[in-house]
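Trying the structure run again after the queue cleared.
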Amino acid sequence: MRDEIAKALARFSKERSTKRGFLFTRTNAYYLYDSRFCSLCDYQIRLQSPACNMNTDRIDTPLFVGVVEKTLQYAAIPKHLLPVEYLRLLFHVASGSESDELLRGILVSKGTEARLAVFTDPAIEEMFLEAEAVNRSPPIVSDCKIAELQQHYARNDLRLLVELYMQGAEMKNKAAELYEN
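Done. Tokens:
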């Protein structure tokens, strides 16, 4: 059986449209752009797929990801093509003689819809990471008594909602009653 990464790379190399790709091996990682490539100096990848889940900065299993225009067209590990549910890749390419001279990039894909941005300002990467952390905050889990109170208000009429909004005291009294019982 032929390697799925090799098949995907062959198809990717024949694409005529604007294309960007990433090849990760156990020892190296590469950024492919049009018909050229360069090494990544570091990366952080989060991938969710029915066949494979990753959240790492080191790959044990080789992986290829290819974007054509704004579509994730290729995602493969050696034995499987991957249907991608979510992919987020942060990457850096050394672009100067100093260690802090980096070309930075972010690739985000939900399903096959992909967005890729390449930039040099580290503040852009920080803003993205901060926004992502806010969006990933865990949902608030309510206890049983609060859930009861919420159901009680949902079953009642609009008058209670208006009282709650206008006075605020109605909710405090009902909450106190509920916790005293």
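The mean pLDDT is 81. Worth checking whether this holds up in the mutant runs.
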